[in-house]
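Hi R.,

As promised on Friday, here is the backbone we talked about, encoded as structure tokens. Could you run it through your design pipeline when you get a chance and send me back a sequence?
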């Protein structure tokens, strides 16, 4: 369990590094001076300068950053439009002095890096093939499904019988069929054929008539798995990966639209939607790893697309917010005052952090507790 959590955590960090590398590479392309590329957030643990850029490892392992010269802007209201030498002799390499279209491309560099990474990840998925969870109702085009055990509650009938996470229940094609079998045999012994590590074993258990809340008669959580992503030759996989990235993007946009439409209509969070912060996402990634490398990469690819979309939201403190300020600059023919831009950005940054803390306390911590109990 600890190993999968560690892999999931560093996978998230890797995505953040890829995002910042997108900004980094476009800035370098346009000749902008990049002062620092950091993994983690300060205080700094280690740093090594190559050329003009300091590459650093920092103490707080919650992402990455790139420090671009002049990105903080120049407040012309205070120093006057002719005061550009305030940046020094390298002013011509300042982000603020670039043409707006170049600054927009630098902002979009991180977002594009997410989509490129997603296409590469999905290409690997199509090289390996993958089984993914689906509902009982999702049967169109599915030719091969299986029922796998996702969780086993401690001291439950399933736990006492020796069932384990990852076991496949043979002879049952839908979760509803398993539930009916249990419902019809409460208090009676039943036999299950289980596939584990390629071997078929028979396990007997007796579903409980009465049981603790949120456990059910047997104390297991199930997932229906379908082999829906087939393997392709390595030279065909990139095309399928790119097309699938587009498909996931469209589906994600429709899902986000449905989410906010439901909230605005007063219907609350749509059924099946789950709010999660960084901790919750790490838990989901760790659980995805239990389904094998194919699904783990599939989940990371989908998450990468969501991060790309989230980052273009027109919210200050995100790339999309920076784009809004650049569009305003284009319209009014002068930069937004630095103190205004920084003040608005800080406000929304604090708001996002506050929301993240709320989601962590409300949703993620209970997930951590449940995840820890399941692994005991």
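Update: got your reply. Pasting your designed sequence below so it's all in one thread:
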């Amino acid at each position: 369990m600890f190993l999968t959590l560690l892999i999931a955590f560093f996978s998230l960090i890797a995505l953040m590094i890829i995002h910042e590398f997108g900004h980094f590479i476009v800035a370098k392309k346009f000749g902008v001076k990049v002062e620092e590329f950091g993994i983690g957030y300060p205080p700094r643990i280690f740093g090594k300068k190559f050329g003009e850029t300091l590459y650093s490892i920092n103490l707080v392992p919650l992402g990455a950053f790139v420090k671009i010269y002049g990105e903080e802007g120049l407040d012309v209201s205070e120093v006057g439009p002719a005061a550009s030498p305030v940046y020094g002799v390298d002013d011509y390499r300042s982000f603020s002095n670039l043409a707006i279209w170049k600054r927009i491309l630098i902002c979009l560099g991180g977002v594009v890096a997410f989509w490129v990474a997603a296409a590469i990840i999905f290409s690997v998925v199509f090289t390996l093939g993958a089984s993914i969870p689906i509902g009982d109702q999702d049967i169109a085009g599915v030719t091969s499904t299986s029922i796998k055990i996702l969780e086993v509650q401690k001291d439950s009938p399933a736990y006492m019988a020796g069932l384990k996470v990852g076991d496949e229940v043979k002879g049952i094609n839908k979760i509803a069929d398993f539930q009916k079998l249990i419902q019809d045999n409460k208090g009676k012994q039943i036999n299950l054929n289980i596939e584990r590590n390629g071997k078929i074993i028979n396990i007997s258990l007796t579903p409980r008539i009465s049981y603790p809340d949120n456990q059910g008669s047997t104390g297991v959580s199930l997932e229906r798995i379908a082999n829906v992503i087939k393997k392709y030759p390595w030279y065909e996989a990139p095309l399928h990966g790119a097309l699938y990235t587009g498909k996931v993007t469209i589906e994600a946009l429709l899902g986000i639209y449905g989410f906010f439409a439901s909230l605005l209509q007063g219907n609350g969070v749509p059924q099946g939607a789950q709010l999660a912060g960084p901790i919750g996402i790490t838990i989901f990634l760790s659980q995805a790893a239990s389904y094998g490398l194919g699904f783990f990469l599939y989940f990371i690819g989908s998450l990468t697309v969501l991060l790309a979309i989230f980052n273009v939201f027109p919210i200050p403190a995100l790339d999309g917010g920076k784009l809004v300020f650049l569009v305003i600059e284009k319209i009014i023919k002068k930069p937004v005052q630095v103190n205004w831009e920084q003040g608005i950005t800080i406000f929304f940054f604090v708001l996002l952090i506050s929301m993240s803390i709320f989601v962590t306390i409300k949703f993620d911590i209970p997930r951590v507790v449940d995840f820890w109990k399941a692994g005991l």
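One thing I noticed while checking it: The chain has two domains: 2-33+69-129+274-375, 145-229.

Thanks again,
M.
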